[in-house]
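note to self: dont lose this again. the chain is below, predicted strucutre after it. 327 aa total, dont forget to put it in the shared folder this time
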Amino acid sequence: MSFEDDLRITLRDRASETLPPADLLTETYQGVRRNQRRRRWLATGAAVVTAGAILAVPLVIRGDSGSPPHLPVASGPSLPDVADLGRWQPIATFDLRPGWVPEGVGPATLEVMGPNQVLRYEKDTQMLAAEFGPLEPEWEVEATAESSTTIGDRPAIVHTADDYDGAAPGYRFVAVRWQTAEGKWVQVTSLGPYSDGDVLRFARELGNEPGIVPPVLSAFTFADPLAGMAQQYLGPAMVCVVPREMSGKQRHPEGLCVYVLEEKFEPRPHGERLLIAGRQACLNVDAGIFDTDLGGGRTLRIEWDQRTIPLGRERILRFAAGITYRG
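---
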């Protein structure tokens, strides 16, 4: 079960609440990490829909009464922090160059976790990842052994365990963490068949030639992003933004998040039923959840906390109308 699946179940269980807990996303994310050890960390097939699916929702919206609601032309500043040019497609980058990668790793993916960058190689249930940024990462597994080493001229800590939840036969947990001279954290984590020597070699050759990791564009594009917001999280199937004053303070998804579920659309209790370009939708402003039926057993969800990101009905409808998804 993926992070998005756990998030979906948690949100569904709490859908009847007037306001979701402010740290619901954080709680869910941490629970997944504790219980499943992230052996398939946001696997690309978990929530990303099949290739060619595109949502571009125009402002053709009517409520249950059949009469179109009034949508104001503008509300608030027109140039949000996340997109000075008005149209915003999030992008993930990784600034360290892997000089050596073990044989048999899966394809590379990129993730943004607050101010940190993550490069991940996944194949089946094995994962090799490197995280880089100003916030100290978390250990994926409780270590049964700890030792020290050096990466370049920097002291480093090595955590290992011969078993972990979900480990296949012969798999081990190996992770090494250190700080650069500039004070940024680097952590390399392996959940799979790789030896301590493999993981340490991968870690020691980060930043060396060859192999610049190309940037990765998000599957989401926003034509009308929210003013005063900054990117908080970006993964293969999710984008989150937070008010500028909250940005860069944690690694976990928080704020307003947009993602696609491989789940049949179901109207939520106490929600307002809408039609968007002929698609069913359901909006619960108080709960901070807006679902749109993409068809084929897929649902586009916008989820936010009204206590930290207060949004009115007209503003969230305009925001949703500017989303294009290509998965």
